[in-house]
Amino acid sequence: MPYISPPRREAYSLFKQAAKETRIDNPGELAYLICWACDQYVGGHLMEFSLLNGVVGVLESCKIEFVRNMLVPYEQGKQAGNGDVWRQE
Question: Model confidence at 61, in pLDDT bands (50, 70, 90)?
Answer without folding.
Answer: very high
